[in-house]
Predict the 3D structure of the following.
Amino acid sequence: MSDDAGADRVSSLSLSHFRSHRRTRLQFDARPVAVHGANGAGKTNLIEAISLLSPGRGMRRAEAAEIVRRPEAIGWRVAAMLGGREVELRAEPGQPRTTRVDEKPAPQVALARLARVLWLVPSMDRLWLEGAEGRRRFLDRMTLSFLPDHAEGVLAYEKAMRDRNRLLRDGIRDAHWYEALEAQMARHGTGIHARRADALTRLQAAQQPDGPFPAATLSLSGPDEETSEDALTAALAASRPRDMAAGRTLVGPHRVDLSALYAAKGMEARLCSTGEQKALLISLILANARALAAETGRAPILLLDEVAAHLDADRRAALYAELLDLGAQAFLTGTGPELFAELGGAARQLRVVDVEGTSRVEEIAT
C-alpha cells in the first residue's frame, strides 16, 4: 500500500530517553505492526509514544515528568513523520511538553488535523463499571476523531469552568462576576453536547449488527440543560447557591454520562460479562474507524494494547480481518508471536526485549 492509499500513518518514529527506550528509531510502511515481548520489556511504551501524536496526554494520561527515562532524567523526545509532516514532542526537566510541526511551535490541538489516532488499552476494560469521567473521556476522544474543533471547545469550556469554580470557592456572590463566565460555558457547553451527539449518530450508523463483534446502542444520559444555550445559562445561574456549597459547578456537559446497551440482548453494558464488555469496546473502536474511513477516505491509526490476550482464535482472526479490510495502520501488542499467527505475513513483526533496563526493538522475519 502506498503512503497515500487511504490511511493515516506514522512513517518513522524516533524516541530518546522515553520511558524504557533510551534510543529507538523505526521506519514503518502501511502494514499492521505486531509488537510482542515479555511484560515490562517496553512494548506498551512504544505505542504510548505514538498515542502522544494526538491532542492530550496519550493513552496513559501521563504528565511529562512521568515519561522521562530514569535514572538519567535529562528530558525526553519523540519525533515522527505523521501524515507527511515532521512532528516533534519534547519535555525538558521541570518543563511542560512542547510540540513542533515542521520545526515550528504548534499547539497540541493542531495534531488532530494531521492524523486521527484511536486506541484500546487494558485499563479501558472497566469502562462500563467505573465512574462517568472515563466514559466522557472515551466519548470525547471519539468525537475529536470526527470533529477536530472539539478539542478547542472542550478546553475553552474547562477554562471558563475553572474560573467560575474559583469564584465559588472564594465565596464571591456578585452576579456580574459570574455572568460572563456562564455565558462562555453555555456557548461552549452546548457545542460540546451537539458534537458528542453527532459523533454518537455516526458511530451508531457504522456498527455492524451481524458482524463478529456485538453492536452497542449508545446514548447520553444526564440533565437536559446542555441541549440549549439559553437553558444552560439559566441552569448555571440558578445553581450558584448549590454550587457554592459544593465548591464546584454541578451542571453542564462535564456531568453527562455515556450509556451503552448490548443491542442483541437489550442489556446494559455494565451488566454484561467481562468478555462481552471487551467485545463491545472492540466493536466501538472498529465502528469509529469504519466511520472515519467512509467519511474521509482515510482509515485512522489504531493502537491496540494487549487486545488479543482475551480473544479466542476465531475472534482474533475476525479482528485481524477487519483491520486488513480497513487498510488501517494498526499497532498491536502481546506477550508472544502466537497471538498474531492469524495475521500471517500480512503484518510486520517486532520483538521488544529488555537489556539491562533498556528496551531494544528487533525485527522478526515473517
